[in-house]
Amino acid sequence: MPGIWIYSEDSAIARQLLTAGLDLKKTMNQPIVVLTLSAEDSQALISAGADKVCIVKGTNPWPESYANAVAELLDKEAVNVLLVGGTMRGKDFAAKVAASLKAGLVTDALSVAYAGDAIETTRLVYGGVAVRTEAVALPALVTIPPRTFAEAADQGAGPGEVVSVEVANDDERVSVTNVCPIVRQGADIAAADRVVCVGRGLNKKEDLALVEALAAAVGAEIGCTRGISEDYHWLPNERYIGISGQKVKPELYIGMGISGQVQHVVGVRDSKIIVAIDTNEKAPFFEAADYGIVGDLYEVVPLLTKAMQK
Ligand SMILES: Cc1cc2nc3c(=O)[nH]c(=O)nc-3n(C[C@H](O)[C@H](O)[C@H](O)COP(=O)(O)OP(=O)(O)OC[C@H]3O[C@@H](n4cnc5c(N)ncnc54)[C@H](O)[C@@H]3O)c2cc1C
User: Are 215 and 241 contacting, i.e. CB atoms less than 8 angstroms apart?
Assistant: First the structure.
């Protein structure tokens, strides 16, 4: 079936892609097919607007091992667009499918639109200081970062169809001998509703207690700039935010002792409310902030914490 196809190994991300897909459907006037590896999600995907859910079944459990089989399926069905969830696995998968189909691929797209015989996408370039618009000829593959779109809402049971497709996805050249899950310290900041973030304005590791107290008072997760984790090793790497770290999209972000270099701001600019605290009134972060407090974090943060505890 030609149309707008969607794939993510993560069903929450697949529902986010459905939001983009439903928008494309308005102009392309083509059905939406969601590829999934898990039968469990199919009804939820239909309820959220998919016209068809295709459960792909193979013997190898690793999502990336499905790339060749999915490419064959897309070719056979003459698919126009494949939107892929831009996780590390998703990007790996999308690159393999695009190479197999000799199709164009845009990664990290922030928007997708139908433009006649192409899909027009936008994405950030030059470390986030510019937005580039690109047109990819059909069939087009596009990866979209997690949380770029909100999850498609449940519209109640639709008339959608669920099918299963058996595929051969064994690759004897690759075998998994061991799996070591990453041990996370604390919650996933990328999904946090509130984030308190600290930069190199902090003098020493022990002073993180100030940040922890504010985070506890507002119910926030703690993030940091790259130097705090990669250079000073005061917080784990999964806590740093920015172009090469995590992207956050909380309701409230409070940054302290952070100058606001573009590589950091790119990771926080989608926050609903940004509060910046810095001694330097000319710090670039104030331009990105909704509220700015010019002051010493060692004075301001305890006052803020006290006020939030009331
Ligand atoms: C390719 C590349 C990728 C990068 N990726 C990332 C990334 O993903 N994330 C990231 O964060 N960085 C990244 N960086 C680094 C980035 O360019 C900046 O160097 C970094 O974000 C600066 O961190 P900072 O704001 O904590 O430190 P600084 O720029 O040193 O700023 C410290 C701020 O603290 C203020 N200050 C000092 N004392 C106090 C006080 N007592 N109270 C209040 N304010 C005070 C100062 O006025 C200053 O504004 C990247 C760089 C490159 C080249």
Answer: no
135 lines ligand 1 (CB under 6 A): no
How far apart are the two ends of the chain, measured CA to CA in Å?
Answer: 59
Q: For residue 273, give Cα distances in angstroms to 15, 56, 292.
A: 25, 41, 11
Q: Are 132 and 122 in contact (CB under 8 A)?
A: yes
Q: Residues of 141-153 as b/e, b for ≥16 C-beta within 10 angstroms?
A: bbbbbbbbbebbe
| CATH placement of domain 189-309 | 3.40.50.1220
Task: Return the domain boundaries, the chain.
Answer: 4-166, 189-309
Cα distance between residue 277 and residue 143, in whole Å: 35
pTM of this structure: 0.81
189-309 matches 4-166 in CATH topology: yes
**In testing the pocket of ligand 1, which one of 225, 229, 300 has its CB within 8 Å of the most ligand atoms?**
225
In the DSSP assignment, the letter for residue 153 is P
Q: Are 285 and 301 in contact (CB under 8 A)?
A: no
C-beta neighbour count of 22 within 10 angstroms: 18
Cβ–ligand 1 contact at 235 (below 6 Å) = no
90-147: pLDDT as tens digits: 999 999 999 999 999 999 999 999 998 899 999 988 877 889 999 999 999 999 999 8
Torsional sign, CA 83, 85, 88, 89: negative
Q: Is 226 in the pocket of ligand 1 (CB under 6 A)?
A: yes
Select from 3.40.50.720, 3.40.50.620, 3.20.20.70, 3.90.76.10 the CATH code of 4-166: 3.40.50.620
The Cβ of residue 130 has, within 10 Å, a number of other Cβ atoms equal to 9
